Structure formats: C-alpha cells, structure tokens
Amino acid sequence: MTTNTELIWGASFFSGSLAQLIARFSGLPSVVLLLALGLLVGEAGFDLVQPEALGQGLEPLVGLLVSLVLFDGGLKLRLAGRELQRTVIQLVLVRGGLGLVGGAALAHAFAGLSWPLAWVFGAIALATGPTVISPMVRQMRLIPSLAHVLEAEGLILEPVAAVLALLLLQLALGDLPGWQEVAGLLLLRLGGGALLGALAGGLLVLLLERLPEDADALRLQLSLGVLFLLVAGSQFLLPEAGFPAAVIAGVVVGLRLDQQASQLDDLIFQLAQLAITVLFPLLASDVAWNELSPLGWGGVGCVAALMLFRFGVLQVAGLGIPSLIWRDKLLLSWVAPRGIVTAAVASLFALKLDAAGISGGGALKGLVFLTILMTVTLPGFTSPWLAERLGLVASETPLDPAACLAAGLEQQPGGDQVGALQASE
User: Fold this and answer.
1) How far is it, in rounded angstroms, from Cα 8 to Cα 150?
2) Buried-most residue among 16, 27, 151, 362 (CB within 10 A)?
3) Digit-coded pLDDT (tens) for 191-211
C-alpha cells in the first residue's frame, strides 16, 4: 500500500494517462479503461494506492476539479429549439421523481438497505455524470440532438442529486426533522447556488469582454480564479451549492460570450479532460471487493433492475414528444453512467455514517460503486454498437453540434449533417 502522497498522485496520473493511451490505439472505451486501471492499482487490485492517505484535502480538491468539468459542460450547453428544451425538461422532471422512488425501492428490496439509506442511494443514483457521458458520446459518435439530451440531463441532475443526497443523509442521521425541511433546503441550496452562479458568470463576462483577443492565458487564469472562488464561496454559504453554481456560471458565460465562449471552452476542455483522467482512477482505487461481495446477487440484481427501470422512465418522459421515437428512447435508456461525483459522495457518506455509529455505510458505498461499475462497463462496451445498429451515429465528418443547432438543422436518424447543410445552402 502506498501512503506517500506524491506517489499516490503520480500513480493516479500515470494510470489515467495509460488508460487514455490504450483507448487511443485500441478503440476501447476510455471510461471503461480508466475504471479498470483504477481498480487495478487500488484496493481491489494490487493495493498500491489508497485515497484515504490523502486526508481531508482530497474532498475539496475533488469538488473543485468536478466543478471545472461542470463549468465546461455549461459553456457548451445549447438547448436550441423548443422540442429539445421540452425533451430535456420532461426527462429531468420525470426521472427526478420516478428515479428517486424507484432507486430507493430497488435498493431496499434487492440489496437490503434500510429505508433511510435506500432513499440516500436513490438520490445518489440520480446523478449521471458528465465526466463519463461526454467520453461515451464521443465514442459513439452520437447525433448531436441525442448527445445534447444526455449531456444536459447529466449537467442538471448531477448537482441536484448531490444536494438531495446530502439532505437525505442528514435526515437519516437525525439532523433534519422531516421531508418538509428536506424540500425547503433543497430549493434554497439549488436556487441560491444558481443565483450565485449567474452573478459570478455575469461578472466573468464583463471581465473577459475587456481582454484583448490574444490574451488566452489570462482568459483561462481569470476564468479558473472566478470559478474556484465561486465554488468555494458557495460551498461555505450553502453546502453542496457549488455544483449548481458552476453549471449556471458556465451557461451564462456561454450564452453571453457566444463565439468567445468557444475559444474559452477549447482551453477549459483540456483541463477538464485532465481532471477526468486523474480523478476517475483515483476514486475507483477506493473500491474494495469486500465491500461488493456481501451484496452478492442482490446487489447485481438491484443495479440490473435499476438499468431496466430507466427504460420505463424514458417511456413516460417521452410522452407528447413525437420526435423522440422508439430508437431514441432505447439508446437514451441504455446510456446512464454514474461517475466521479457519485463515487465521491458515496465515499464521503460512508465515512459520515461510520462516524455516527450507523451500520450500513459500507453496503451503501458498495452498492453505489457496483452501480458505477455496471453502468459504465456494460454501456461503455455496447453503446457504440447499439448506436450504429439503430442508425443514430453522426456522419464521419461531423459539424460542431452547437453550429448545427444554431443553423436550425434537424438531426435525422442517419446523422447526415453535411448533406443537410448542403441542402440548405
């Protein structure tokens, strides 16, 4: 076991970069390889890396790096067209309600979690991470219309899930008296985070507009400074409000700066990819087989049922949206990976439950990591094949999705964007 912090970070960076290298030359899904190498160097493998040795500084660092990924997603978020906006809104609302209830019920019935912890799991499982969805979308070469739906779902639900899960944990620990307080604090923290994010995004826009065009380095430094101060300040004022603040700040900057936002995103994107490369193996190394094995087939059955349950959720969410045909629903129902925020939240909650003397923290953490393993690995290997079979792959020379949407192009199942553009000229 490695306890030297430099070696831990070095091993995490190397394993992540090695996974990206193998993915580049083999064509295998990068997220699956990042997860696999994290398991290999961690407790489940050679036990070379243990994240606990990094101490309490790991949690805020993970939060800042994840906020960078969320800010990057917000910059690129373009929900052009009422049909796309309606699809995302209905999916988020329906999944937020049915997903919470269904996840809790399945965790209680299959994995044997107590109801208080089952509700916590249901909230954690709502988060479909942009850190995992974005590489999958690129791997599939998915048509932009569906890619935007998946990415927007993750960007919206991941902050909501993090805040809701923390409040439900406080309810399970007895720190909150009832569900009314949970609902009130959820609205306060999400609304407060969104407001702070909008204000910080507006301030950042004013600053960036005054920079010369050749000040790319300063533009990046200023963006990171405002973002990290925003997240840290939001977390201090309203716990877990930093994530929604980061998303809204990115959306405001992206909408206000438009073309300049694309240049900024090129810079932010590289740092976001670096964050994914180091964090995913690091958090995956925290998984131990002795946390997964007690769940047995009940845990596997829970996650499998949860993945199938999403198909029913998509049927409900797609009501009244004629453009969302059965092929779209099938693909959207299969791709719902859980990522870094899910792993970080589960690890933190297990420690809090153990400190409070409440049993079940290990089972909750094990079930969450089993959910990550199955929802990343199975769709990671099969979704490119499924997208191709369903005719939902973009053309070999795809245009920028935002540009396609801005031009008002309709994405057909075949994804022939170039032909559509030529027809419109």
Assistant:
1) 33
2) 16
3) 999 999 999 999 999 998 888
